[in-house]
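A brief tutorial aside. Many learners find it easier to grasp structure tokens once they have seen a single protein encoded end to end. The record that follows does exactly this for HAT C-terminal dimerisation domain-containing protein. Read the sequence first, then the structure, and try to relate runs of similar tokens to stretches of the chain.
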Amino acid sequence: MLHRLLEQKNAVNLYSIEYGKVDTLSSNEWDIIKNLTTALKFFYEATLDLSFDDASISIVIPLISLLTRTLQVRSENENEIMINMKNSLYDSLNTRFSYIKRQTSLMAATILNPRFKSKHLNSDELDLAMSEIISFLTDYNNNSALFRGTDNVSLMSTAPFVLSTSTSNIQQDKEGLWDSHDNTPNQMESAGSEDQKTVLKEKSQNNLSEPLRVLQRNADIYCYWNSSPYLTLRKAVLKYLSASPTSVPSKQLFSAAGQIYTDRRNNLLGEKVEKLLLSVYNIRVFSYEY
């Protein structure tokens, strides 16, 4: 809303001068709006990233980390209002999301995402995430003998992944939320063989030690894992990367069902509606070729 108002600044001022029925904003208020849009655009970008159909829960920790980092940046022309607002947002983020770094499943999902790995975790958090994955895989292999041959299971994908050293093909105006992630090298170092007590840990360490930017940031991580040489880790990928970070996709599904039941089609059987919804949301898997 503020971005749109700032975009139409000249039109708003002109309308106020010609008709005189609307009090125009002062130059100081326009400056405040400009600064607000600069700070809040990162939250808008994060909201979009979380709401994509193919978004994974592994994006939560990196987004919180990046938002926290952007709120700590100070510029010379910031006034007291902006400083106070950024401080309030920073405190609110820490209060609302302090628990995420205690969720081992979230940390495990983060390091299994080839775009993030250990970049947004410290050494203690990385150890917890590794322990979570190794514990799951060990239990899986010991207790699920029927699934020992599932290394070749394919992960459902909607688009091919792209090998590239570039980070994104999405054009953004000026600076973006992901700039600090893209421009900071990965600090992860491969652990020595003496610290690798099990084969699972060795596989996990080898995966983490690979270059971080193998994929474009908007590429399909599931297609990447389909062709990854780390077959042992695919079981963990199926478990930890399958969850959506928000309820947006399910709400969209309910909205789509409401659009199918129109006044002229209110006698459709539930079975027919389920088939229509299944077709609508899965036809993209086949690139609309049917």
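Self-check: The radius of gyration is 24 Å. If you spotted this yourself, you are ready for the next section.
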